[in-house]
Amino acid sequence: MLARLTTFAIDGLASRRITVEVDLRTGLPGFTIVGRGDAAVRESRERVHSAVRNSGFEFPNRRVTVNLAPAYLPKSGPGYDLATACGLLVASGQVPAEHADRWAVFGELSLGGELRPCGGALAVAEGARRHGLEGLIVPRACVAEARLVDGVAVAGVDDLAGVAAILRGEEPPEPPPLRAPADPEPVEDLSDVRGHALPIRALTIAAAGGHNILLVGPPGTGKTMLARRLAGILPPLTQDEALEVTRIHSLAGLRHGVHGLATARPFRAPHHTISASGLVGGGHQPGPGEASLAHHGVLFLDELSEFARSALDALRQPLEDRRVTIVRGQRAAVLPTQFMLAAATNPCPCGRGARSCECTTADHRRHHRRLSGPLLDRVDLHVPVERPDEHALVAGPVTTSADVREAVLAARERQEARLAGSGATCNADAPAAFAPRAADLRAGARETLRAAYAQGALSARGHARVLRVARTIADLDRDDDVGAAHILEALALRRSSDLTEEEHG
User: Fold this and answer.
1) Segment 39-48, tens digit of pLDDT
2) How much is the pTM?
3) What's the burial of 254, exposed, middle or buried (CB within 10 Å: 0-12/13-18/19+)?
4) Number of CB atoms found within 10 A of residue 228's CB
5) Domain of 48: which CATH number?
């Protein structure tokens, strides 16, 4: 007898419908799974066999063939366990087939028949709605996430016996009550910072316009402390952004035990030993890297000069295109990478900076060669971070995150109104057609920018980025036009670090 059930495969960040076909035939007992499954899929034979028997059902003593269609799509992970087990029960007549086509099933089975959660429940629920299925059966631990998708009934079940009861036509169990949102983790505040008025101003501009920022200074001056407070001054996630962040983190297995939508913007800080594929995504089955996990948030690269040059160069296209395409085995996965880059580095190998540096010219050149010049050209703000003096350490804070966030929100509102219809929400992401126009520049600003470009201090990309930063500064000042002072501040922030022009070579 042949039985068919529906489940879903994770393909990049989306879900693909999979038909699980189970065929029982007379002959020597055997259990075969075909359809380009990986080791986890092949090992599901043992999990399904034990789960069926330990749930009070009879495992058919016949030749069992399971096909995961379409056969050309590689399958990975244990999420096909439940569909395979249900197909066995339907094909052997232990569960009627009349309700099987109404439900999609997704989940991992334990040897005892209990359902274990799998990453990607939100993407699977979106797939079930997209294909017009009436309902989706998932492990109870995943039901809160799957219920974030409207238009599809979601049943959370504890074990295989409960799933069989639903397929017999019984009413699904009552969904667990929605838990109250957990108290958000305390956000690091700028009120903890002493001194550093210039870096705080640069962080404000970066957050207001979505610009990339590089902090350069000796060890212990507060570069990491400042960068870790950047996410706390960004605007809150919109509903669509929260859904995207939740989907990505669910697929990466970062939301086990977490209920509801993501509420905070991501802040990712990978170690400098990370590989290029770990940073931008990849693997045998293409999956999100740190750049995608930081989508709609901040990617912080501490000790930038210690990262492998290949990893830094791999970031160049994702920074420009806001997405990365990973190709493996004639298959392509497009992963979103709309993040703010924050980086920190020492000015030289000894780290002491210009005042007491012991490095030679050759040491400086080797240090600068470790930094990707094309990547640094995509960083809008280069900010020196000096050691605060003794008076700043005992004085009160320069500002608080709440005050900075209020200014950032006001600037973002101006940008959203100006960029309406472009698909962008901040100056850094504005397409060329919506970039600040020459008509928005006052005469003095136009001449200042022209002179800076004529001197060779800017690349063509740098020219456009300085203009966008100046537009953000004008938004913070609630000014409709970009003035010379805005251009000068944008130029100063782009060229004010201790790194020399060799970084752009």
Assistant:
1) 999 999 999 9
2) 0.88
3) middle
4) 18
5) 3.30.230.10
